[in-house]
């Protein structure tokens, strides 16, 4: 099965190890990985700030970059969701709407692809310790992917899982929200870190690099002894 990787800006610029783990896990599961070098930002930050028309150029570039793909896999629920938003943005464009729909139909978040397409729940991972999981907003509320990460974590050997209190609460990142409303964002991430501490977890796991960067940054600045890991890194542990 040929898989085309949509790496995302966060992974490309800040968390290359997540991209590497994503590729290694998929290759072990029998996938051939393709990486279109023409890919860039999906346009979500500008779109969410209200620059809809200005964002369309970036969207068209991404549609063209992934036009050849059979399956598109993304290690970010938020960015995978935004590909699903493309048909809505181009709903009145007879040329680009079908192309946007084709892109959306073949896009999957990383854990969703493993569980729902490859039909795998145990990837052979091992990580000793206690972990909790941050359910990012876009992935759960908009993309609707909730069970796949839980199924995969359940089968990681040596991992003791505990549910995060108030897991449905936003971590305070919200893309440009953290920049525009820093005081509120700080209070939200402080509350999230407090809940992570309540679990006694050694690892905080998530499926969105942006959320993990936000929470991990706060954990680091406060000197907490909690390791932050993307779920691809957990599933790549042996």
How are the elements arranged and paired?
Layout lengths: L1 E4 L3 H5 L2 H13 L3 E3 L9 H5 L3 H14 L5 E4 L2 H13 L6 H10 L1 E3 H8 L8 E8 L3 H6 L4 H8 L2 E5 L15 H4 L1 H18 L3 E4 L2 H13 L5 E4 H5 L3
Parallel strand pairs: 1-2, 1-3, 3-4, 5-6, 5-7, 7-8
Could you please describe the fold and organization of this structure?
The chain has 13 helices and 8 strands. The protein is of the alpha/beta class and 238 residues long. The protein folds into 2 domains: 2-116, 3-Layer(aba) Sandwich (Rossmann fold); 121-235, 3-Layer(aba) Sandwich (Rossmann fold), CATH 3.40.50. It is globular. The mean pLDDT is 96.
Short structural summary:
With 238 residues, this protein is α/β, with parallel strands linked by helices.
Domains (count): 2
- Dominant shape: globular
Could you name the ranges where pLDDT drops below 50 across 5 or more consecutive residues?
A: none
- The main sheet orders its strands as 2-1-3-4
Distance between the termini: 23 Å
CATH architecture designation of the largest domain = 3-Layer(aba) Sandwich
Q: What's the pLDDT, averaged over the residues?
A: 96
Q: What is the oligomer described by this structure? A: single chain
Estimate the helix proportion, in percent: 40-55%
Q: How would you characterize the largest beta sheet?
A: 4 strands, parallel
Q: Can you count the helices?
A: 13
- C-alpha Rg (nearest Å): 18 Å
Strand content: 5-15%
Tags for this model:
238 residues; alpha/beta; Rossmann fold; 2 domains; 4-stranded parallel sheet; 15% strand
